[in-house]
Design brief:
four-stranded antiparallel beta sheet, 0% helix
Length: 155
């Protein structure tokens, strides 16, 4: 297993694999049927605080205490780092080729992972953006340490 606390996890759409992110700076892929670790990735220099599996199951998107987002291609095992937050990346959501990240810097960032660029930054809350959820691909719900939930129309 991991050598530190597990901070986050996600499951593939076919329910065959789970991905975990840990305080030991690693991401692990687990086979749900055998409970075996299939692979360990070290793409962050500090704890991994959020992971999402892209809907096509070919990419793992992760955020960390190193303030970066990594896009890990499971076929090539190559990773691209996206930087721009000035705080810990606490939460992620993925739809098509857009990743939304929430951070302890109180911002939301919208990333195009085909071009590896930040499309937009929004100062979303007065404290950390600690959770987010895309709803029906048109609304983004965000929760914060400031005690508020906000609803964003993203169409």
């Amino acid at each position: 297993g991991h050598n530190g606390p597990i901070w986050c996890m996600d499951v593939t759409s076919d329910s065959s694999t789970i991905v975990t992110g840990s305080g030991d700076h690693t991401i692990k892929l687990w086979d749900l049927k055998t409970a075996e670790c299939k692979h360990t990735f070290t793409v962050h220099s500090k704890a991994v605080s959020s992971v999402k599996i892209h809907t096509n199951n070919n990419f793992i998107i992760s955020g960390g205490h190193d303030y970066n987002i990594n896009v890990l291609n499971l076929e090539t095992r190559e990773s691209i780092s996206l930087s721009g937050h000035s705080g810990i990346v606490l939460c992620l959501s993925v739809t098509n080729n857009i990743v939304v990240s929430g951070s302890s810097d109180s911002t939301l960032k919208f990333w195009d992972i085909t071009q590896n660029i930040c499309l937009q930054t929004i100062l979303a809350h007065s404290d950390s953006v600690s959770s987010l959820e895309l709803y029906e691909k048109k609304l983004l719900l965000t929760g914060s340490r400031d005690g508020t939930v906000k609803v964003w129309n993203i169409i």
